[in-house]
Amino acid sequence: MSLKYYKSETAFQFENGATIDELTVAYHTYGTLNEKKDNVVWVCHALTANSDVFDWWPGLFGENELFNPHDYFIVCANVLGSHYGTTNPLSINKQTGNPYFLDFPQFTIRDIVAVNQRLADYLGIQQIEILIGGSLGGQQALEWVAAKTIAVNQLIVIGTSAQSSPWGIAFNESQRLSIAADPTFFSNTVDGGVNGLKAARSIALLSYRNYQTYTKTQEETDAEKSDSYKASSYQQYQGDKLVKRFNAYSYWYLTKAMDSHHLGRNRDSVAKTLQSFTPKTLVVGIPTDVLFPSSEQEFIANNIPGAAYYELNSFYGHDGFLIETKTLTEVIGQFLQRTPKTTNESIKEQYN
């Protein structure tokens, strides 16, 4: 379960035509690929996570959880552009001998998926039994099925979309404006933009939770207080926490990659692309999610033939996909036991 690295021997070409001579992918695997090679669970992670899914999705993934190394060969690759080991803006550009910083090629969700595919080829994986992801991870999973570069038997996506919305793009642009307002971001130093990243994280948190979450968890009990509120301290704390483990350049590029997500780009349409999907599919929406409203997940489920749809009622909004693992274990467990495809309506009746 230790961090591993795959180094590609060939250049990698981005969707926009740019190339890099070398590509390194950091990844984790858990368990053993069986003789039939039909026990693969591939996890696509979200924005600032890493490839150690046992660390950031406990309760769903682990030694004694639904997805465990005894039953499955679990793979999670660190995404392109993230500084947790995969080639990213802080990687050394061999042509200059310095980190890329803002000279790193702009990449898309499709580029991230192409990197995943390279790793799958390297690992000898020709089919994925279960492909799962939430948020940006769900975007990757949907795009990978749409790309049709590997066989996927079962698909599970949570709190995600088939196309980035103007609302989501606006949130991301607001975060990038915060980063760009920090002049050190353009200094091309490893710690450039840290104050901007802290502000960006504060903005992001407003989309990860919601009004009710903050009202409950950050409520003041001292009616005489006129400063130093809990909500203020919480935003400061979360900003500092991210700055200690991430960098502004990766964050900048990854939010742009999220903006690029569009299953219909250079294809017939988003709906027709979804209608061409063949995996047995479970789509989970979170009604309290203000970043990826559940209407976006309903659209996905309504267009994938035979897809199951479940509404996860979570107090935690978008972050519910990481927190409500007990419910997800039950829902996903039921889904995996269901062999025939059924209609959306019948699934709703069974789950509600």
Describe this structure in words.
GO terms for molecular function: homoserine O-acetyltransferase activity. With 352 residues, this protein is α/β, with parallel strands linked by helices. The chain folds into 2 domains: 4-166 and 264-351, Rossmann fold (3-Layer(aba) Sandwich), CATH 3.40.50; 168-259, Rna Polymerase Sigma Factor, Chain: A (Orthogonal Bundle). The protein contains 13 helices and 12 strands. Helix 3 (136-147) links the parallel strand 9 (127-134) and strand 10. Helix 4 runs antiparallel to helix 5. Residues 340-352 have low confidence and may be disordered.
The ordered H/E elements are EEEEEHEEEHEHEHHHHHHEHEHHH
| Tally of separate helices | 13
E-strand count: 12
The CATH homologous superfamily of the largest domain is termed: Alpha/Beta hydrolase fold, catalytic domain
Structural class call reads alpha/beta
User: Mind telling me which CATH architecture of the largest domain this is?
Assistant: 3-Layer(aba) Sandwich
Provide the domain count: 2
